[in-house]
Amino acid sequence: NLLGIIKGSSKPDEYIVMSAHYDHIGVRAGDGDVYNGADDNASGVAAVLAMAKYFKAHPPKHSIIFALWAAEEVGLRGSKYFTDNLPGSLILSQLKFNLNLDMIARSDNNKIWGCGLFHYPAYSYLIDSLQGKTTVELKSGFDSPSSPQDWTFLSDQGSFKQKNIPFLYLGVEDHADYHKVTDEFNKVMPGRFTENANIAAQMMLLLDRKL
Length: 211
Prior knowledge:
Helix content is 27%, strand content 23%. 40% of the residues are buried. It has five helices and nine strands; from the N terminus they run E-E-E-E-H-E-H-E-E-H-E-H-E-H. The protein has 211 residues and is of the alpha/beta class. It starts with a strand and ends with a helix.
């Protein structure tokens, strides 16, 4: 895991974790093809790094941990290690929220989903307050037994849910290049990636203001 921390100006002992996993499938045995994972999940990593740069220049009220997880693709191992072995003197009650980004560079159907409000409806403002303010359709779902799929434990937010820490997972639906060697940079949609990264940025600003 790679971690960076910016201490909060007025609530330094309360932490928001913004995260993305940086691993992917790797090299395919036999032919040596490399799975670069441009959308899954270099896109999330790029957005987290951009937000770290922003908050370095614009100090937040809460402390923020910018986390890039290892070994998500083999069972959320990196994020699970973090929540089981918090660094320094940090304790679980200081972690107030996890915003996890995974696959935000495509929006092939012009939609991106916020998963988690079924479990934590008090944070519906993260979706509601951005309605009509984005060029992609920001939806809530994929987080309940009645959903077509339940993404609650399919990415690193699951490690936080296991510890009863509120979360929102931001990501697009699976596309034709999901977990294939064709998930390459030339398939990224720059305009939609920028819009989705900006959605994540607005969510971080809302969390810092409202928590």
